[in-house]
Q: What sequence folds into this?
């Protein structure tokens, strides 16, 4: 039984170590544009049923409840929470924030489509609209030369004013993508996520249509990490880790006592 208690406490140590890593990653990305914080979900391991509920006792009575012993805890998954981050004014015409639902799409080097809330865009040497990592925004938008100003409307229409002309020229449409289960998206770094079987297929559309959010030019969406809450979670995780560690120490002392006195 003492060895079983050590195993249970060890599962607690492992789970809290993982939670601490998740909390540390949230805090490390507190200033990462478009970052969404992660949450760790726990569940108990299988129970050992020593006596079933309703079993007959020695004097012919039925047990009112079962005698069960838990075997520890495990992490089911980590889940991204997609609550809206606050919008920061940058006064940069190629910075675009999403106010509401949706993700920007970009073509990754391996041919996959990555999805992000980070709307810090720029142009490459060919004038194509790209992310800060150089990935081409989908659908592709070409910014012509000699542009004096760029305008992105709330519904995603990109217009430019070219030197020498009196009217703005429409050059493309920024689209958004959503999923039936956003939590099913797989993060791959650089604030990008990719589609999985759990997320469901991508649903494309224009901003302000079909439940999609609106675009806000000259703003970026900040991380939705609440520093105070993360610090509270860190302290809670540390205390839970200490308690599991003390359970191992206490079990070890019990076993030592038995070894020395029996």
A:
């Amino acid at each position: 039984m003492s060895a079983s208690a050590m195993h249970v406490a060890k599962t607690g140590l492992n789970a809290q170590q993982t939670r601490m890593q998740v909390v540390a990653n949230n805090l490390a990305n507190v200033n990462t544009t478009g970052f969404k914080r992660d949450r760790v979900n726990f569940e108990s391991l299988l129970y050992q049923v020593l006596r079933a509920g309703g079993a007959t006792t020695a004097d012919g009575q039925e047990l009112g409840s079962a005698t069960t012993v838990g075997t520890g805890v495990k992490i089911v998954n980590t889940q991204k929470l997609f609550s809206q981050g606050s919008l920061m004014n940058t006064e940069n015409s190629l910075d675009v924030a999403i106010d509401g639902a949706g993700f920007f799409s970009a073509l990754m080097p391996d041919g996959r489509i990555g999805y992000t809330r980070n709307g810090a865009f720029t142009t490459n040497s060919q004038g194509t609209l790209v992310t800060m990592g150089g990935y081409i925004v989908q659908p592709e938008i070409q910014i012509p030369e000699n542009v004096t100003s760029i305008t992105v409307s709330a519904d995603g229409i990109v217009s430019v004013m070219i030197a020498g002309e009196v009217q703005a020229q429409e050059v493309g449409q920024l689209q958004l993508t959503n999923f039936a289960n956003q939590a099913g998206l797989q993060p791959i770094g650089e604030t990008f996520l990719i589609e999985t079987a759990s997320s469901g297929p991508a649903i494309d559309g224009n901003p302000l249509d079909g439940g999609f959010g609106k675009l806000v030019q000259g703003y970026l969406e900040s991380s939705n990490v609440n520093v105070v809450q993360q610090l509270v979670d860190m302290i809670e995780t540390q205390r839970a880790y200490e308690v599991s560690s003390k359970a191992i120490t206490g079990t070890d002392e019990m076993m030592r006592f038995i070894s020395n006195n029996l």
